[in-house]
């Protein structure tokens, strides 16, 4: 009986440790809601929105992007005629990087 109780307590502690360590193991997460890849923006105004979780630094084409406490970000940009490639880069505190690109076109 004591061995089973000890095994259950040990299992619970291991599971709890794994749950708490998950953000350290998972690395950064980056989700881009807007712009949609290969989208056309006739007026050249693009709303950039998304969410970055477990991130120490977020950049768009090398420029820092400000985030809310929950990781969400939103900004509006005006682009010239032609094609543009937007490169989002999220870096966590351990240096792990996630990159996302979006191609847009302004006719």
Automatic annotation (TrEMBL):
Per the record, the domain of life is Bacteria
Any idea what this protein is called?
A: Bacterial Ig domain-containing protein
């Amino acid at each position: 009986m004591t061995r089973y109780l000890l095994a259950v307590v040990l299992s619970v502690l291991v599971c709890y440790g794994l749950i708490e360590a998950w953000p350290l193991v998972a690395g950064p997460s980056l989700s881009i809601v807007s712009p949609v890849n290969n989208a056309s923006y006739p007026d050249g105004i693009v709303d950039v929105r998304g969410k970055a979780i477990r991130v120490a630094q977020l950049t768009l084409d090398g420029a820092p992007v400000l985030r809310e406490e929950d990781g969400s970000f939103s900004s509006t940009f005006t682009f010239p005629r032609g094609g543009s490639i937007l490169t989002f880069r999220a870096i966590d505190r351990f240096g792990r990087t996630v990159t996302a690109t979006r191609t847009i076109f302004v006719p």
